[in-house]
Structures are given as structure tokens and as C-alpha cells.
Amino acid sequence: MRINIIGIGLLGGSFAMGLRKTRPEFEFIGVEANHIHAQKAVDLGIVDKVLPLDEALAVADLSVLATPVNIIERLLPEVLDKLPAHGKVIDLGSTKQIICDKVRKHPKRSQFVAAHPMAGTENSGPDAAFATLMKGKTVVICEKESSDPQAVYLVESLFRELGMVIDYMNAVDHDLHLAYVSHLSHITSFALGLTVLGKEKDEKRIFELASTGFSSTVRLAKSSPAMWAPIFAQNKANVCQALDGYIESLQIFKDAIQHSEEHSYQLMEKANDIRRILSGIEKKSVNS
Amino acid sequence: MRINIIGIGLLGGSFAMGLRKTRPEFEFIGVEANHIHAQKAVDLGIVDKVLPLDEALAVADLSVLATPVNIIERLLPEVLDKLPAHGKVIDLGSTKQIICDKVRKHPKRSQFVAAHPMAGTENSGPDAAFATLMKGKTVVICEKESSDPQAVYLVESLFRELGMVIDYMNAVDHDLHLAYVSHLSHITSFALGLTVLGKEKDEKRIFELASTGFSSTVRLAKSSPAMWAPIFAQNKANVCQALDGYIESLQIFKDAIQHSEEHSYQLMEKANDIRRILSGIEKKSVNS
To answer: Which Pfam families match (chains A, B) (predicted)?
Structure first.
């Protein structure tokens, strides 16, 4: 089996590194526009070689689109156009609706599987990749019925080898859920970073005072703008709806802090329910 | 040396457990209104015994007020009234202005040192305490000049034994900085929890989708309302100012997502600066 990683960064690189562990017989090739990343990906042994897109597509059994979502949107139709009959392609993008819509009527649509492995860190590039990134996490497959069953079988088998749990959704639901559970988290963190950087001109102070919870809530503010700007743009309507809800929650909280300690207590008690739900997740991660 | 922990929870318990490691000769006693916590604190070996407040104050060299800040505000004048001449008292509260103001003119003010060890987790109670909680973290001493130098020397020595870095601030500055760097983080997280719980009625969905960053940004939403409601109430003006700035940042972000992907990119690039500042912090924690 020859797997072609298009965009050898955190996600694409980790996908290859994870499979290399269980499948040393697989060959990994890559397509990478950034020459420094391309060289690093070879040096780190993530891929055996980097090829031009057309050559890589011609020889690969499976091509993995792991670029930012705006590039996936642009490349996917071209990749399908050039895909040989035996070839299959998946994307790993964090949005699904625009990407699925883009190729809905493509004659080779069934050779494509839309996937979103829900794993990541605030770091990016091939240096950030590691073999166990996806282990124990969920991958969402969207619009499974539009893909060839053999392609779905192959892709699911590979994600299972990486230790992932498979989930199915339509692309519209996926993008709505992700706006709340992932995209909003990133915005809350970016905005927290901006607010504190704007107020605390003295960096040493931030540095000294940041031990009480700030580091973890602001962690995602380190994430790559090249990855996230296109995600927010593609999922604009859902993200703005989630942001409106979040701003409303903040205003309710502010009002409670100003006028009723009892109400502020009750709001926090309600939010505490997240502990019960997440302790389920933590248990699941440990067991899987 | 006999140390008296008033409120044997995460912070007071960890203070005792940390010192027990380096100072097995110290005696630790405690005052605890919650009978289950009192029994647990003895069972876990955090304190040797639990006493009524008056008895504990009479025999302790140092009393440590480690209750929620509203209880500190109420108890501190009474503790000072009853403090024997050799006794010293510190508080570990997350707000400082109201607490310092409360005893500014107390005849025994110099026997009190106002301290805020900036360490914590989202968990509470004696079960949550552990010996290394404060290691490598910063403790802020406020209004040092109002405390007896011997009391300051004792308290600083103990915090140094716990591996803490000492910092000084006046109470007004402390509360302003903390509103941005700690209190705001907690509110962003509580509000995120409320928003997602409000929208995602299907808990299984939250559970499945929460791997991409949500868990870390929402972690603080598990924090104790009994601890945080009084902090927000005592630091109301600063916290509301910080919240206004944060809501403004979110609105700027939302506007950028709606109208200009380039602007949204630039905002994230600016927020990324937090990586440089926090990598300094991480280095410091590793080294100390």
C-alpha cells in the first residue's frame, strides 16, 4: 500500500507516523509546498520522499488531504480529476459542509471519503507530528453514503489501526456541533490572549501571574492562524451563532457578579455539570 | 513549630502536606467546619488533629487562613483579636484589597501577612490536596510593610521551602492583575461550559466531540462555586472591567470572521504572542 500525504503537518504527519508503527511495509510519499517542511518530513522519516502532486496521485493507493481547509476546498476537485481508477482520497479538514458541497456532483465523488479526525494540539508543522496523536480520539466520517463502500472500509480500517473511534454525521450537523465544541473554544482562547496582552503591557507580570489557570485556558491561542482563519471563514454562520450564545452567557455572568452573588454561584454550579460529562471522556480515553 | 490550618482544602491541605515532607518535626493542627473534611484531613495525615478555633489559635505559632475569601474576610479580625502575642497569621486568599482593608487599623495588624500563593487546580477539598501543588509557582505577598519583619521572614521561609518564588505587590495592583490573569480565565471557562451545555442537549455528542481543545479550555468550569463566587464578589469592579474588555475582543473577532478573513488572521497572529511569553513561564517552571 502506498499512501500519499498532501500537506505534511501536525495531522498529516501524525497520520503517517502512527501507521508506520503498525504497518512498516507501507510506503509513504508526500506532497508539500513548503520546501523546509518537505525536507523536514523526509529527515524525520515521516515520508520516504516528496513528489509533485500529479506524480504522487498517479502512484498512490490513498491520498490524504491534510492541508488547511481553504486549500482542501481548492485542491479536492483537482485531485479527484486526476485520480486514477484504483485511487482513493480522504481529507482531514475541520469543516465538512463546504468541502462536501464542492464535490457533491463530481463524477469520481465515490472515490472520496470526508473525514475529520478530532485530534490536535496548539502546535503545527511536521516537527509537531507524533505517532499517538489520534489514539483514543474520535474521527467523524461525513456523508458515508456518497462514498464507495470499499473506500469507506479502507479508511475506517486505517483509522481503527490508529486507535480511533469512528462516528458518523452529515456535514451540516458536523459543522454545527464543531462550532460549539471546538471552534468556539479556540476563539475564547484567542480573545483571552488578546485581552490580557492588551491590558498587561508588562510581560513579566503575565509570566509571573499565569500559574492559576491562565496557561490552560489560553493554550489554544498559540494555534496556527493559517489553519484557523479558513476554518472560521468556512464555518462563519455557525461560529457566529456560537459566539453570540457565548457573549450572552458572559453578559448573564457579568450581571450576576454585579448584582447577585447567589446567581453567580448558581451559574457556576450549573457549569460544573461539565465535570460529569468530561469525566466520561477521560475514562474513555484511558480505556481505549 | 505548630502550624494551624484553618480550612483544610486544596490549598491549606497542600501547604501542610508540602511542609510535612521537608519538616517532619513540625506539628500540624487544623480547624474545619465540615465534619467529613475534618475526618478526611486527619485520615490522610494532613493534620494531626482538628480543634475548635479558639483552642487552635491559642497553641499555634502560625495560623493559615485557607478558607474561601468571604470567610477569610469575616474570620480574620476575630482571629487577630484572639491571637496570642507570639502568634502569626497568614491568609491564602485570591483577593487582597478587601481583606487588607478589613484589618488595616487592627492593633495586631503586624502579626498578619497577606499572601496569595498562585497555585490551584479545578478540584477542591482535602482529597484534592497534594504536596507539590505550590512547587515552582509564584506567591504574592501584599503590603509587606504593614507586617512585622519577623512574621514576613517566617512566612517567606516557609513558602521557599515549598519551592515557591516570592513576589511583592500592593493589594490594589494585585486585585487588578489577578482579574485579568486568573479571574477572567475562570469566567471564560464557566461561560464556555454554560454555552455548550445549553446548546448541546445531547451529552454523548459533547463527550465524543470534546477532544479538540474543548477539554482544556473548559477545565476551569469544574471549579468550586463556593470558592469562586466570593472572589468575583470581592473583586467585582476589576472583574467586570476585565469582562468588558474580553467581550469587546470577542466582538472584534466576530466582526473579523464575518467580514475579513485577513483581519481574523491578523488577530490570531497577535494572540500567538502569548506563546513566547508562556514558553518563558514553562521554562521557568521546569528549571525551578
So the answer is: PDH_C, PDH_N
The closest of B153, B137, B151, B116 to B18, measured between CA atoms, is B137
Mean of pLDDT over chain A: 93
Angstrom distance (rounded) from CA B53 to CA B76: 12
Residues A23 and A129 in one domain: yes
Which residue, among B134, B135, B214, would best test binding to A if mutated, counting the most A CBs under 10 Å from its CB?
B214
Residue B138 · residue A208 · CB < 8 Å:
yes
Size of interface A-B (CB pairs under 8 A): 326
Parallel, antiparallel or unpaired: strands A165-169 and A112-117: unpaired
Specify whether B140 is located in the same domain as B161: yes
Kindly determine whether residue B119 and residue A189, on different chains, have CB atoms separated by under 8 Å: no
User: The complex's ipTM?
Assistant: 0.90
Q: So what's the pLDDT on residue B279?
A: 77
Q: What is the pLDDT of residues B201-211, one digit of tens each?
A: 777 777 677 76
Same domain assignment for residues A187 and A245: yes
Interface of B with A in 177-236 (CB under 8 A): 177-178, 180-182, 184-200, 203, 205-223, 225-226, 228-230, 232-233, 236
Closest partner residue to B236 (CB to CB) among A118, A185, A258 is: A258
Residues A158 and A114 in one domain: yes
Judging contacts by C-beta atoms under 8 Å, the chain A residues touching residue B139 are none
- In chain B, the number of structural domains is 2
Residues of B whose CB is below 8 A from A201: none
Shared domain check, A145 and A71: yes
CATH number of the domain bearing residue A61 = 3.40.50.720
How is residue A84 written as a grid cell? 486514477
Q: Which domain holds residue A20?
A: 2-170
Pairwise CA distance, residues B121 & A97, whole Å = 38
Residues of B in contact with A262 (CB under 8 A): 229
Q: What is the mean pLDDT of chain B?
A: 93
- Alpha carbon B226 to chain centroid distance? 13
Backbone angles phi, psi at A28, to 5 degrees: -115, 125
Residue B166, chain A, CB below 8 Å: the answer is no
How far is Cα A118 from Cα A183, in angstroms, rounded to an integer?
A: 12
CATH number at residue B187: 1.10.3660.10
pLDDT tens column, A241-287: 999 999 999 999 999 999 999 999 999 999 999 888 887 644 444 43
Residues A132 and A211 in one domain: no
Residues 11-30 of chain A with CB under 8 A from chain B are: none
